[in-house]
Each structure stands twice: as structure tokens, then as C-alpha cells.
Amino acid sequence: MAQDRVEWQHLAGLAPYVETLAAMEARVAEIAAGTAPEAIWLLEHPPLYTAGTSAQSADLTDPDRFPVFVAGRGGQYTYHGPGQRVAYTMLDLNTRGRDVRQFVCALENWVIATLAEFNVRGERRSGRVGVWVVRHDLAPNPDGSLREDKIAAIGVKLRKWVSFHGISINVEPDLSHFSGIVPCGIREHGVTSLVDLGLPVTLADLDAALMTTFPRFFP
Could you tell me the sign of the dihedral formed by the alpha carbons of 42, 46, 47, 51, in that order? Predict the structure, then answer.
């Protein structure tokens, strides 16, 4: 079973970004060297913005609002903060198949299955990284199309075929904090959370769902 070879760890409090990133990179080196097991860290960060390798400066619309960090992962700008579950996913693709596209697809499927535990239908969209929900509860766009909001972000990096960074799922963050960036470079759509969708879900609830669904996609 996946749980047998993956070490799950909750990081208490609000994990400082620079120190956590350094610890994650050290753990990735240990996994690559065969001296530590694969790991998933579940945590929250204090309010901050991170810039992926494709970030455009124009998408940082309020640069003085929160600290900004260069993350080194794929993707563009994203927000992390309290009420958002970050799952840093350190898995060895040397033993899981060296297929980056398949790995990202598995991460997306993991998020979608986790959301389904709360009767939320998460979906992919071509050309838009992350997981989206159709807002049947809101007025449609001016052109008559249904609104779609992002509920989860995915951004990964590989080193010696060991993954790091991972996923973030909005449980109950302050959604106004996303307004200081253009999330993932997408201006046409908004951002939501489980609580914003009217669901009384806690971080502990989400963690239980993440651990339950994980083995389906990472056996």
C-alpha cells in the first residue's frame, strides 16, 4: 500500500516559506539518495505569493501586499495562506515510472477524488492548470456561459526524478488575498474554496480525504 512507503507529516502552525522549502529540498535529496522514504507534508503558510518559472511580472498586481518568493516550481503566480491546505508531495518517480505528464495527471485526479468526498465536482480545463468547479449557484457570465472558479492549484518540480512542491486546495482562505495577483495568469475566471461553496469543511476533514484517496492514484 502507498501509505506503507510514504511518510505523512503535519507541520504545525504557519510554516515559514524559506525554511520549509529548504527542508523540502533536503528531504528530496535524501529520497534520491535512498536514505529516506517518500513523504507528504501537510501544512499552511502565512500569507504570501510565490512565482513559478512561467510567472509574468504584470501578473503581480499588488507587489507590496505580501512577501513574494521565487518558488522554482512550474507555473505562474499563486497565493498561499491560512485556511489553504498545501500538500508538498515528495515522491520517487524512479520507482513510479518516469512520466511527468502521467504524474501531473495523477495529482489532478487525486485532488478531484478528494473533492468528490465532499460532493464537489472538480474538473480539468484545457490550457488551465489546476482543478476547477462550475458555479451553477452564481449568475452566468455576460456571454451566457457558466462561471468557473479555481479551487486547487498544482505546481511541481523534479530533481533526479524525485518530485517536490505539489498541490494546494482552498478550504477557507481569505479569498480577497488572491486579488494581489492574477492567479496562474488567468484573468477570466475567479477563485473559490470549499467553505465559499457552502460546505462546513475543516482542514482536518480535507486531510482525512486526501489520505483516503491517495492510494487510488499512487499505489
Answer: negative
Tens digit of each residue's pLDDT (9 = 90 or more) over 24-54: 999 999 999 999 999 999 999 999 999 888 8
- Tell me how far apart the alpha carbons of residues 207 and 169 are, in angstroms, rounded to a whole number: 10
Burial class from Cβ neighbours inside 10 Å (0-12, 13-18, 19+) for residue 51 reads buried
CA-to-CA distance for 194 and 180, rounded, in angstroms? 21
Provide the residue type at 121 as one letter.
R
Question: Distance between CA 191 and CA 69 in Å, rounded?
Answer: 21
CA dihedral 60, 28, 44, 70 (to 10 degrees): -10
Cα separations in angstroms, 168 against 79, 140, 143, 144: 9, 26, 30, 30
Cα dihedral 54, 69, 126, 86 sign: positive
Its pTM surpasses 0.85: yes
Catalytic residues, by residue number, are: 184
